[in-house]
Specification:
alpha/beta, about 40% helix, 8 helices, three-stranded parallel β-sheet
């Protein structure tokens, strides 16, 4: 399958099937939306909360989606999956939640804040490093070096990174070097700007 068609199919799947419920919507509001959707001249707004790790791919998906749905006005809100879940729990208007894990989605389902959930992608934990250093592992970190990790409580990649470090008996040797980031985009930013020599 061509990548273009795959991207379109992915976004359609997410938009159609992964909507988050908003309990404050009345049936009257729903009727108004149905009438509005039949009017092709009006913009149809979609509010999407997506894990920061999905920033680039979700923008590419939106671009392809809009080729077929020119009246779609797609608004993105990026952040750590846990933080986005908390926003939805407190009433943030969200049509689609693209999480980097299943735990936060399951919590929303349990609270009747999400419906029609699907596994739509896989993430892979990757160690990144300063391009000017020849580091291959966290074992290469020197005194004064920093290791960027997403906040364990709200960023799935941060949780996975800590689990990896603990499973490989590396956590205690690097815990004093860890600097926390609000999402994986901030981890990347820390490494790019030299605030950290490595990051997950």
């Amino acid at each position: 399958m061509k990548i273009k068609h795959f991207l379109v199919a992915m976004l359609v799947l997410c938009l159609v099937l992964a909507g988050c419920s908003n309990s404050s919507n009345s049936s009257k509001d729903s009727d108004k939306k149905d009438e509005s959707s039949s009017d092709n001249s009006k913009k149809q707004e979609l509010q999407i909360s997506a894990a920061a790790s999905l920033t680039d791919v979700s923008k590419a998906l939106a671009k392809e989606f809009k080729k077929e749905h020119k009246n779609a006005d797609i608004k993105f809100n990026y952040g750590g999956s846990g933080a986005l879940r908390q926003q939805i729990e407190t009433g943030a208007p969200v049509d689609v939640f693209m999480s980097a894990n299943t735990k936060d989605v399951d919590q929303l389902k349990d609270k009747k804040k999400a419906h029609d959930t699907y596994n739509y992608a896989k993430n892979k934990l990757v160690l990144i490093g300063d391009k000017d250093k020849n580091y291959k592992s966290v074992k290469d970190l020197k005194d004064g070096d920093k290791l960027a990790l997403g906040e364990v409580k709200t960023v799935p990649a941060g949780k996975y990174a800590k689990q990896y470090l603990e499973d490989n008996n590396l956590y205690n040797s690097v815990k004093d070097k860890i600097i926390n980031a609000k999402d994986v985009k901030q981890v990347l930013n820390y490494v790019e700007k030299g605030n950290a020599q490595e990051g997950f």
